[in-house]
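Hi there,

I know you've been waiting on this one. I reran it after we fixed the sequence typo, so this is the corrected version. Both the input and the resulting structure follow.
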Amino acid sequence: MTEDNKPVLYRCELPVRYGDMDSNQHVNNTRYYQYLEEARILWLDGLGAQRREIGQGLVLLSCTHYFLRPVVHPSTVVVELIAGDVGRTSLTLEHRLYVKGQPELVGYGDVKMVWIDVATQRPIPVPDSVRVSMGKEPLAAS
């Protein structure tokens, strides 16, 4: 489980739409992955990691999420991203999800991603801006 004492890299609030609900009247499990994806993209865009403009991007290697409590409409999901391991071409982001205004964790997990050159689909080094934001040294300084 993600440790509470690790610093939060990025935090965002995302509204739960009525269409996110399933027949059991809570958020469908697949929507959680979309919330996490949105948070990751907002975080990267905020760093100036211009993936699209320079032909780079991330591919998901693994994604784990533990569902602890249901989320219902109307509400707002709070996503917190926490730095995990950073390798030469890969990085791990841990995550925690809450419902705004409620202290109980509704889910947690992590994603491991590989930074790639879009044209070749081959791994390339994680940009220094991302490494530094995650508390790691730039590759040039390693």
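Quick highlight: The longest strand covers residues 105-117.

Best,
R. S.
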